[in-house]
Amino acid sequence: MKALGCHLILELYDCPARLLDDPDHVAETMLEAVEASGATVIQPFFHQFAPQGVSGVVIISESHFSVHTWPEYGYAALDVFTCGDVIDMDAAAESLRRGFEAGSMQKMMFSRGMLDLPPEMIHHKPESLEKAAGCRTDN
Amino acid sequence: MKALGCHLILELYDCPARLLDDPDHVAETMLEAVEASGATVIQPFFHQFAPQGVSGVVIISESHFSVHTWPEYGYAALDVFTCGDVIDMDAAAESLRRGFEAGSMQKMMFSRGMLDLPPEMIHHKPESLEKAAGCRTDN
């Protein structure tokens, strides 16, 4: 079985509230992480909530990065969804941890689109599919 | 422990390629699902890839809906990330399944932002936090 996508879920705790409530800082941190990962930005969007919190998404050529922050709890929910073989998930995670100055970070990684087909039947992006199988954590 | 967010992951298989490769249909289906769930749209964004495939995100007041499609495999990866107590996750999932005419759908639900605090310490959106605990699937 092969996976079409790789989905990294990051839970960032103990982040300074001032960083999580600053839409400019959130945007900068997200775009730095996209760049660190080697992904290509198509469209970024960020929104500040009242009384606090920021949501944002960066659509990339290889899927998306998203963020939702709860400054009052020092918590940020991050998702990195990718396809393709050029994305460095560890670099993205480390860049986000550093940018939000997280005291702790939990990581979960999922394979998305597990096709019940033999590999020779999957002709789209063969290299990326090979690497995405099992959602490698070593790249 | 209480959760700040609820994250529904949907894997849609055996969808007609013509629906997954039509950005207008993808956008319409996503916005119908947002409406069915009771969420409030802040900003939708959709992008068509060459030679095929659509990515899209709808930022909502309660977090986001995202979609990535692989028409060549009849597969769509959907995520519904919410906070708050007004979102009907089942209605969202059924609306998406119907809109993409999926032959099969896998659902996974996660609690995001599990705070290691007693309930009385969590004073933000108390009703939504109560309902989000365990990421209920019956609403």
Mean pLDDT of chain A: 87
Structural category of chain A is alpha+beta
Number of beta strands of chain A: 6
Distance between the termini of chain A: 20 Å
Instruction: Name the assembly state.
Output: homodimer
N-to-C order of helices and strands of chain A: EHHEEEEHEH
Task: Kindly provide the radius of gyration of chain A, computed on alpha-carbon positions and rounded to a whole number of angstroms.
Answer: 16 Å
Biggest interface between chains: A-B, 34 and 34 residues
How many alpha or pi helices of chain A? 4
Which residue ranges of chain A are poorly predicted, with pLDDT under 50 across at least 5 consecutive positions?
Answer: 124-134
How much of the sequence lies in strands of chain A comes to 35-45%
Q: How would you write the strand order of the largest sheet of chain A?
A: 2-3-4-5-1-6
Shape call of chain A = elongated
Overview of the molecule:
The structure is a homodimer of 139-residue chains. By secondary structure, chain A is α+β, with helices and mostly antiparallel strands. Chain A is built from 4 helices and 6 strands, in the order E-H-H-E-E-E-E-H-E-H. In chain A, strands 2-3-4-5-1-6 form a 6-stranded antiparallel β-sheet, with helices on one face. Chain A is elongated.
Q: Topology, please?
A:
2 copies of one chain form a homodimer.
Chain A: E1 2-13, H1 17-20, H2 23-37, E2 41-48, E3 54-60, E4 63-70, E5 75-82, H3 89-99, E6 104-115, H4 126-132
Antiparallel strand pairs in A: 1-5, 1-6, 2-3, 3-4, 4-5
Helix pairs in contact in A: 2-3
